[in-house]
Amino acid sequence: VTTQADYAAIVGAANILSPADGLDRYQADGRAAAGKAGCVVRPASPDQVSAVMRLAAARGDRIVVQGANTGLVGAGLPDDSGRQIVLSLDRLDDRIEIDPDNRSATVAAGVRLSALNAAAAEHGLTFPIDLGADPSIGGMIAANTGGARFLRYGDVRRNLMAVEAVLADDQGRIVRFGSALWKDNSGLDLKQLLVGGSGSLGVITAASVALQPLAPNRLTAMAALDDTGHALATLRLLEQSFGGLLTAFEGISGEALSLALRHVPRLRNPFATVPAYALLIELSGGDAVPVDWLEEQLAEVLGQAMETGAVADIVVDRRDGLWAIRHAVPEGLRAAGQVIACDIALRRGDVFAFRQEMRQALAARWPELMLCDFGHVGDGGLHFNMVWPRALGPAPADPRDIVFDAVLARGGSFSAEHGVGPRNAAYYDAHVPAPVRRIAGQVQRVLAPRPIGRVDFGEGEAVRV
Amino acid sequence: VTTQADYAAIVGAANILSPADGLDRYQADGRAAAGKAGCVVRPASPDQVSAVMRLAAARGDRIVVQGANTGLVGAGLPDDSGRQIVLSLDRLDDRIEIDPDNRSATVAAGVRLSALNAAAAEHGLTFPIDLGADPSIGGMIAANTGGARFLRYGDVRRNLMAVEAVLADDQGRIVRFGSALWKDNSGLDLKQLLVGGSGSLGVITAASVALQPLAPNRLTAMAALDDTGHALATLRLLEQSFGGLLTAFEGISGEALSLALRHVPRLRNPFATVPAYALLIELSGGDAVPVDWLEEQLAEVLGQAMETGAVADIVVDRRDGLWAIRHAVPEGLRAAGQVIACDIALRRGDVFAFRQEMRQALAARWPELMLCDFGHVGDGGLHFNMVWPRALGPAPADPRDIVFDAVLARGGSFSAEHGVGPRNAAYYDAHVPAPVRRIAGQVQRVLAPRPIGRVDFGEGEAVRV
User: Fold this and answer.
1) DSSP code string of A2-32
2) Cα dist. A125→A117, A210, A212, A286, B151 in Å?
3) What is the DSSP letter of B157?
4) Alpha helices of B181-314 — where are they, by DSSP H?
5) Cα distances (angstroms) measured from residue B62 to each of A182, B39, B346
6) What is the CA radius of gyration of chain A?
7) Separation of CA B134 from chain center
8) What angle do CA B183, B187, B188 make, to 5 degrees?
9) Which residue in A112, A114, A75 sits closest to A93, CA to CA?
10) CA-based nearest residue to B84, from B42, B49, B56
11) Which of A15, A294, A372, A444 could form a disulfide with A42 if both were Cys (CB 3.0 to 4.6 A apart)?
């Protein structure tokens, strides 16, 4: 009670939530419920965040920063001790300044992606990180989210100009790294350390991000493949043909497509049967790039791919029907059973060989396990998700070690776009070399002399679930 | 002599150069000659670099890393003491591995941009950082070069996948940050610290970079403006019309254009007279985007701009004639007198107002000073260069303080794309807040416990010329 009173003096009693208030909303993220908070503190300004950090330092409280609870690795959730204090930024959402001439926006950290994009759209602009969820901007930076248009626009890091943050030190200092400039090389780019920092290097309170012109002319196509032998060649053909007009190149395994079509009634299969593999291709252009012209050019290029047998069938869509199928895949998987998720990245040339290798290794061991991979094959990112059928009860073992060992053997990443948190910290310890972790831990302590958040990037064992 | 013998034991006597050998080549960069080296050490492998760093640590020698000597801020040149040791990476150029499926390259740090692009072109690929000079890849990373196609492809930072470096510590440890992946969020992205680190956080020995498809269909246009009142609107119109097909938007002041046309005999003016301001616009497309079609679309869009009076005249070019004019501007300025260079960045909406403000302020004080700005106005980067006429002898004063104070007042940057070195370190001290410099210095010491290079990013005064 004393704890809460101290923090209430900063943010007001109405903005402190205790376990008696029911904290379910603050103890679950996009993947699952986890942890028990001592209380939830909801500041409404960077100055209040600073005061909270000063108080936490004086009291020795551990702060866990939380955005919109859409993360997937648990980095924004408290541990089970009941002592950690959740610093929710959901009230820090009052600032959205669009600079249309500069094509940039400066926003408070609690602003949602959808709110930023609504404001940007009034000026014909967009923040081009395309995600299934609706995270806060601060959370997007802390996780360095990627998404479905990475191939064209990159991740948050590539579209970030400046960060305002409160440091985890005795004074709760407010710092600003960078400014709303496209080009700036006036010193070390310290904001990069907060990107992908899992909320464990400081509290991001605001950011300036680069915006892109909305591409009003958009065309999607789905290609059915009998096998994936020519998928990479199709990607390279499209890149060589369309360059910056190619804005997505996604893959969906036949198994994942089947589960989506079976369990999500609003979908319909665009093909006569479910193909072995499907590619989702998107072209986008500005006002001077008519969609009719895009369709003619795409038909010609994919016509070549059909003639060579690389592609078995093609459907084209000027609306969002094909994207709806792609976005419904996670829902389909969840409906079918227990999802065992691996957010991996490989060199693009390894993606399809890796799939084959894993299908053999896993089918031999667990024939019932459904391999339902899908994702951003155009950038080497793969949601190598597996589903254990609901009818069979809980999964008997965790196949992820096999998957991640194979990823590591190919020089891949155990976290392509979800960041590092308690749910995958064991893989961080196992996959990142000790000398690199040692340096990371030292850098983390420069920005956060007092521990904050859930991840210790140092050479010791990272915090785990 | 003892010094040289110790280093010769690592790299061989033939790869040590002493002042008696004539070190002019190693004591000048893209801007000017400066400094006196104790000797030049030319290792041929990361292991040799590591041994050199161990020896330097044991002897207390200060190492200055040098690439291809195309830098502009003096970060790769020794000081005047005659005691600093230049570590030249010009022999570290034996590794260029292109992965066409992944669209990436892994190269030794001494490889030149031109050599990388020649190798990439064999696979229809390019490293899209377009520069007037031919730097080494290591130097490009240390400076985070930008260039003329930043608007479309960004800077080195945005196209960098991994860095191998030798740290400035007692052991000369070799570390690798990142891997050849497009997407990777498996921990803090420590390679970012070496980007724009001016060779003062470690010795970059190799890197993996992302490549882009060559855009074979390319069209440039130059637009003559009577005034710059509609230049920004023209940029926004082109962005909204062409999106990712717009690959450059450069500006040239009439004064800069005049000097280029006067002093570079191979050029000819594409217009009847020299306009008050000229825009260079480039569209690029893949195989499915014919140049005829690009020209039709561009004619229509720029036709709108002519009708509204935003643009006075337009010429179109399918070859490199217009780029030749743009690239010859620095040569024209040097021929006309003493160039006083400012590599600044502003928010895009501020660029043209800033020019007007500076023209008034500077003309009032030094009427003879020629204001010859040019550069990357599409990304807010401006080479705000001034020329003091040769006939008048040396410039009587340094107008840069006036320029940089005005840049700072607008939240701009004193170094858009040339990085930080002895030549502009005083502006680093003056423009970067002390708390940020304090953190930067601490981070620098984590990676480089022993000082290396010419820049101290810490809170003390940075090293100066």
Assistant:
1) HHHHHHHHHH-GGGEE-GGG--GGGSB-SS-
2) 8, 10, 5, 11, 15
3) G
4) 191-194, 231-242, 254-263, 291-307
5) 34, 11, 36
6) 23
7) 10
8) 100
9) A112
10) B56
11) A15
| B residues 96-135 lying closer than 8 A (beta carbon) to A | 99-104, 124
Q: Kindly compute the dihedral angle of the four CA atoms of residues B225, B228, B230, B231, in this order, to the nearest 10 degrees.
A: 80
Q: What is the CA radius of gyration of chain B?
A: 23
CA closest to B174 among chain A residues: A435
For residue A285, give every residue at least 6 positions away whose Cβ sits within 8 Å of its Cβ, in sequence order, or none.
A215, A217, A218, A245, A291, A294, B242, B243, B245
Q: What is the pLDDT of residues A218-275, one digit of tens each?
A: 999 999 999 999 999 999 999 999 999 999 999 999 999 999 999 999 999 999 999 9
pTM: 0.97
H/E run at residue B339: strand B337-340
Residue with tokens 């089947």: A258
Tokens of A191: 């904001």
Please, which residues 175-204 of chain A have a Cβ atom closer than 8 Å to chain B? 175-177, 179-190, 192-193, 195-197, 201
Say how far apart CA A337 and CA A341 lie, in whole Å.
Answer: 12
Separation of alpha carbons B141 and B210, rounded Å: 13
Contact criterion met (CB below 8 Å) for A167 and A448: yes
Among candidate residues A429, A342, A393, the one with its CA nearest the CA of residue A72: A342
**B46-to-A109, B9, B365 alpha-carbon distances in Å:** 42, 16, 52
Which among A179, A180, A245 is the nearest to B244, CB-wise? Answer: A245
Q: Is A347 in contact with A380 (CB distance < 8 Å)?
A: yes
Look up the ipTM and state it: 0.96
Chain B positions in Cβ-Cβ contact with residue A418 (cut-off 8 Å):
185
- Helix, strand or coil for residue B206? strand
**What's the pLDDT tens digit per position in A387-430?**
999 999 999 889 999 999 999 999 999 999 999 999 999 999 99
CB count, 10 Å around CB of A81? 11
Which residue type does B168 have?
A
* CA gap A122, A112 in Å, rounded: 16
H or E segment at A47? helix A46-59
Angstrom distance (rounded) from CA A34 to CA A48: 27
A154/B158 CB distance under 8 A = yes
* B2 pLDDT more than 80: no
Give B223's strand partners: B279, B314
Of A348, A428, A444, the CB nearest to B102: A348
Question: How many Å apart are CA B57 and CA B46, to the nearest integer?
Answer: 16
Per-residue confidence band for B294, with pLDDT thresholds at 50, 70 and 90 = very high
- Give the H or E element holding residue B58: helix B46-59
B215-274 pLDDT, tens digit per residue, is 999 999 999 999 999 999 999 999 999 999 999 999 999 999 999 999 999 999 999 999
**CB contact (8 A) between residue A196 and residue B189:** yes
Mean pLDDT score across all residues of chain B: 96
Encoded tokens for A123: 């000026």
Six-digit token string for B240: 């909204």
Whether the CB-CB separation of B246 and B343 falls below 8 Å is answered with no
Q: Is residue A419 within 8 Å of A196, Cβ to Cβ?
A: yes
The H-or-E segment that residue A298 falls in is helix A291-307
Alpha-carbon distance values, A32 to A29, A70, A350, B153 (Å):
6, 10, 31, 38
Q: Decide: helix, strand or coil at residue A431.
A: helix
Q: DSSP secondary structure string, A205-243?
A: EEEEEE-EE---EEEEEEEEESSGGGHHHHHHHHHHHHG
